[in-house]
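Hi team, as promised in this morning's meeting, here are the two structures we talked about. I've kept the exact order from the run log so nobody has to guess. The first one is mostly here for context; it's the second one we should focus on when we meet again. Sequence first, then the predicted structure tokens.
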Amino acid sequence: MSIKYISDKNLKNLEGKTCLLRIDLNAKKNEEKEYYRLQVIIPTIQKLLNYNIKVVLISHQGRYGENPSSLELFAEIISKKINTEVEFIKHLSEAGEEINKNNFKIFLLENLRFYKEEQENSKDFAKKLADLADFYVNDAFPVCHRKNASVVEITRFLPSFGGLHLQKELEILEKAIKNPEHPLTLILGGIKTSDKLGVLKNLWDKIDNLLLGGGPANTFLEEQGIDTGNSVKDNSVKNEIQNYAAADKVFVPVDYKIEENQISDIGEKTAQIYADVIQNSKTIIWNGPMGKFEEKKFSEGTKSVWQAILKNKDACIIVGGGETIFSIKLLSNHLLPANLFLSTGGGAMLDFLAGKRMPGLEVLNKS
């Protein structure tokens, strides 16, 4: 994908200008994924500041009409992380004047999801945003599968580039699916099966092992004729998984932890089997915890997968999805090895791996 990313060469021609930088702050305060998503965009911000460029940060949190939260608290958080004062702008109508009259180098606009026009990909709303800057940078992979005004329509009005983390994210994901080192192991868990089915279909001929937990595991167990009681499962994909369920490369739990007729975690035997597969893999892609890891008694399965992954120092490892990344807190010491990459995208990662259209990337490819 021939996206133009920010570089010393093109930023030299934009020195002293104003940049509209799309980031992703769609997380609650104190969540692990919030701080990770903030950390990864710092190199892009610093790169822009090196060229005396004003940076106008734009993001969303929640959905329009569902009581989205203010982003004001993030101004202080970002300020501390980059050791530069961040000016919060509450009203979009006042943004242009505030940016022009102040000597601040970084500004943060209020939550874009306060405006229905953002989710409607409104041309007029995108133009209002575009009027605040001289060029646009997208460093928010998690929203690249959304057709929003600040992601898609905005590129009609400003010279547009990809950010440094977006570049890294895409390079790692593309390598993992186009030229993976084998054995390639795909680990799918969480609640839903339908939203991961596209990944399974697109990567089926490339994967060597499929390890299942949570809802996907229960769905496959039912297809194999095993009654999972009241466990979370997705009967809507029953016909679509028939061709996969009996394959030798599919691993489903051989034991599990049950409460109130519900499978809530994989068992010790399954955890050991999965750990052996992970240890012998050269490429690993993981999305979705193994069970109800928020409850300590059902956290061991997910914890064991993390432990196995961190022991593999040779594989290219990609972990994505908010809950999956958040679950790393199950480990008392979770320093990440160099061979492990945390994807900022949840739904975006799944869509990319499924080979679906990514509107936010397509427009950057054309700009």
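And here is the second protein, the one for discussion:
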Amino acid sequence: MMALLGMSLEDLLGGLVVLLAVGIFGTRCLLQSDDRRNLVIKWICSAILLLVGVVIFSRHSVGLSLLYIIPAIALGFIWLPNIGNFLVKPLTDSFDGGAHGSERKPFYFRAEAIRRKGLYQEAAAEVRQQLEQFPGDFEGMMKLAEIQAQDLHDLPSATETLNELLGQSGLPTSRTVAILQTLADWQMNLGRDAAAARRSFERIIQLFPDTPASLAAQQRIAHLDGVGQAREFREHAVFKVPVRERDLGLRQAVRQEATPEDEAAALAEEYVQQLQQHPNDTETREKLALLYGEQLNRLDLAVDQFEQLAALPEATPKQTAHWLELLATMHIRQGHDIAAAEKTLRRIIDRFPRTAVASQAVARIATLQGELKAAATVTAAKALGSYEKDVGLKAGPYSSPYLS
């Protein structure tokens, strides 16, 4: 065969190297092409023309014949658009931003328009059609699940869609948390299944322990049982002192209604019971601290609760600063202690330097003297009296079932 073609071993090896380089280049172009079918046809035609050229060269090694020009013209005709695009593309990219500026992406506006007309099955079908072109697209999967859960009232299918999305590798933490929170909300509000919602929140805690997402999930778990609604009702109840009735001697003893102090003490006990079941319920702990300081005149217990909140490792800087700000307010309004308030605010500056919360703390330190004067004009806090012994969440090491 080498004798037939008039080629030496060195020429053959050189040709193989060229073919290998062309093959690698061609494969790369094939993978990056949007029109692979036409590109494959071009490569096959080019290979045939090159083979014809080699045969012609082996038969007519002397002089330039018209036979050489025919394959060359054919190759130029095939690849001229690609060559022109290659030469002009750098110039056009400088104006239109190149291929990245026109990157293909899914569009769901048509599905939304169909959905607004109340055609929910058709809207879901339109979303699926986009997902066939862009498999696993986060926006599309979430939109499909939303239509299934909220419009078609098919929570099992929506759950399956979200679980399929959760199964994707490399899913960012924020998206994983958003998916599980959405699923839990649907399980609670649409499915009325608190146990399933609890399991979804527990998945967040297991996947991302000691993080703000974990703390938020613990908060949601603490309020799944409906205790919060009854508690909110009691908090906003109007405390009234009963009007003294006449002719009490002619009727049986009238039951004495609870005083504001009784209500505050009972509410504190309710908070304590909630925290014993859910130690990381920061919302209830904050309310308990405010109740201790503002209504029960127990600054020591209020400080203890705020310190436990500020020590939470998974809390965000904004949350921690908020609790320390409230603690500083307690030192001013209930303790009239400007030094303790300033020391508390400086803890924010030391823990979160060069942040917005630190800047706010610096600004507030300059106003503490005015806050103290305003607090001095307020009527002294009422005495706790006989209720003191029953209002405390007794001090002790703060523990949480989610912290090790």
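Starting points for discussion:
Residues 1-5, 227-254, 379-390, 394-404 have pLDDT under 50 and may be disordered.
DSSP finds 19 helices and no strands in the chain.
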